[in-house]
DNA sequence: GTCTATAAGAAGATAGAC
DNA sequence: GTCTATCTTCTTATAGAC
């Protein structure tokens, strides 16, 4: 990897651990394996490094969003997929979302950095909210809406249903960001949450019971 | 208010807005109306001011916790209160919790400060989690457990039920901490959430309860 | 307890050789 | 592009008068 990009990588790691103000240009340089003054050949100053990180994140985020839109637009395909969704698939849906957020290295570091710096700059707070709250609710809402339209779920308010699905996942995420040692516990809670969510929102208790029996067999 | 305590107040305000590293001793002094060197007659150094804030928060928190325990211990009184809880009262319960967290000045500033500083010191992360996640879940879980034991709510897993009740509130709280202009929207969502929560967990929909009762007894 | 003056040191950034 | 040497500025903290 070229030096210019390695600087961003190491800076992001340090910013996510200590926050912008507590990271010194010399720290970043040391990690890259150069001296501080050399760093100024690649970026104008410390702030420019931070800005470049935000810019790269925006780029990645746009990419992701546009790829999601392509899938989301073709609702006929997604509807087919979610028509016969089982409880296990719903668990997998939540679990995948959770594990992506927590294990994807770039996402994790970027989220931590935003958490620290969000009150320093309102724009960062807005980016955080969009990326980890609003857009996820919007996307998950579309999926759950599809499932509901298939008559599997109750005809409650879909927005609130999506909140009920995602808010616990978000909470477990904030727990694991701060106390990574609780990840195993969080995964158990996550599964219990989604199974209970499914029981509550299922239109037919019998379906739930059948799924349970099936689940038991499949173990 | 005496100077020593005013220093804590102004420091907390500044730390919650900019983070420890971006607040200069001279900033705190200016707000108090003295010069920086005078501040050192009250506190040994900048870190001592921060530590004193944490200490005072611990004191307040202990007070609160012990008063909660006193009420919580006398379950017979609480049970009486929650025996005939209505949906509106449940909405009020969630709304009060939300508004306390968001409008209590000390709590709000302290939570913001912890949010910024949590990754700098693991102890702070633990304090944050205890105060805004674990202890709230524990207390709300006790209340909802009482209500459930009165036969009003479904006999689902109470821990998960509590997560379903509080996680959306927590999420709305993080939204409003970052984007205060969304408070009105958040309050509407909060009410819709709790009413839907109540519908989902209410037993009086015609649901086959006999098997579940058996399950509950056999635990 | 508050002030002015100032020491001590940290950290960002530049100059100029290689 | 990287280095060493150095400048500059900012910030904490102390000294000592009042």
Task: Outline the structure in words.
2 copies of one chain form a homodimer. Chain A is 81% helix and 0% strand. The mean pLDDT of chain A is 89. Chain A has 11 helices and no strands. Chain A folds into 2 domains: 1-56, Arc Repressor Mutant, subunit A; 68-218, Tetracycline Repressor, domain 2 (Orthogonal Bundle). The longest helix of chain A has 28 residues, at 46-73. By secondary structure, chain A is mainly α. The A-B interface holds A 16-19, 21-22, 112, 115-116, 118-120, 125-126, 128-129, 133, 156-157, 159-161, 163-164, 166-168, 170-171, 174-175, 178-179, 189, 192-193, 196-197, 199-201, 205 and B 16-19, 21-22, 112, 115-116, 118-120, 125-126, 128-129, 133, 154, 156-157, 159-161, 163-164, 166-168, 170-171, 174-175, 178-179, 189, 192-193, 196-197, 199-201, 207-208. The structure holds a DNA duplex (18 and 18 nucleotides).
């Amino acid at each position: 990897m070229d030096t210019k990009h390695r600087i961003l990588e190491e800076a992001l790691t340090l910013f996510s651990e200590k926050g912008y103000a507590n990271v010194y240009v010399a720290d970043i340089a040391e990690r890259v394996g150069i001296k501080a003054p050399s760093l100024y050949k690649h970026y104008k100053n410390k702030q420019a490094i931070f800005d470049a990180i935000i810019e790269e994140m925006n780029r990645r985020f746009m990419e992701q969003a546009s790829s999601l839109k392509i899938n989301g637009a073709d609702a006929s395909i997604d509807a087919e997929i979610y028509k016969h969704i089982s409880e296990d698939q719903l668990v997998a849906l939540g679990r995948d979302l959770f594990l992506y957020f927590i294990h994807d290295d770039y996402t994790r570091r970027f989220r931590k950095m935003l958490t620290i710096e969000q009150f320093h700059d309102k724009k960062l707070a807005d980016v955080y909210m969009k990326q980890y709250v609003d857009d996820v609710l919007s996307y998950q809402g579309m999926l759950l809406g599809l499932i509901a339209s298939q008559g599997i779920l109750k005809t409650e308010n879909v927005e609130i249903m999506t909140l009920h699905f995602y808010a616990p996942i978000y909470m477990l995420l904030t727990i694991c960001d701060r106390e990574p040692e609780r990840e195993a516990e969080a995964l158990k809670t996550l599964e219990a949450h989604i199974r209970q969510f499914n029981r509550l929102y299922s239109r037919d208790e019998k379906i739930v019971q059948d799924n349970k029996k099936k689940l038991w067999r499949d173990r």
